[in-house]
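Posting this for the archive.
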Amino acid sequence: MKGQEQAHCAVELAGESVWLLAHRALYWPARRMLVVADIHFGKAAAFRALGVPVPRGTTTQNLLALDALLARYACEEIVFLGDFLHARAAHAAATVAAMLAWRARHPRLRLTLVRGNHDAHAGDPAGALRIAMADEPHTVGNLSFCHHPETPAPGYVLAGHVHPVYRLRAGGGGGLRLPCFLLGPSRAILPSFGAFTGGHAVRPGIGERVYVTADAAIFRLPP
């Protein structure tokens, strides 16, 4: 990979300057807005409810990751690109209590959720979280916030749903699967922000760019 290690890459989308963050989110400086895809609160709890032994603490991990970004970037709003909750099990008392405690630490922060397919099954988050709900496309300026990348929209689409990762191949048959942003002429697909969400390998098409994240750095892959 070429380029100097950095925590973000500035790109222009439909005339808007945004930053792709190494921590798998997008920041829109002009709007002081953080954009997060597929956080999937309660996914581990949903698996445990089905009898699958998975680690605890993913809700706390997600909230701490949000806190780290809010401490670093001046934010007035977070827009979640769908799949805020993974399933109805995400309404468990412990999960809701953790999210309410986080919300109490950020009382002035505006939160907007563009509903995704998992939200349709899980139901809307607790009203006490004070999250404004929207259906896709939710358009602000020249950007349209969606969950599904193929959603028709009046602006340049920012979407999630895919959980994109890129496989970097190495000699001997090994390689790495790294979360990535996939940017095209009319849409950008963000990596999954949540812990314990997995990923789907993607390959860029004509006119698409890939930015991979590794640890605390982000790089554009050469064409």
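The radius of gyration is 17 Å. The mean pLDDT is 88.
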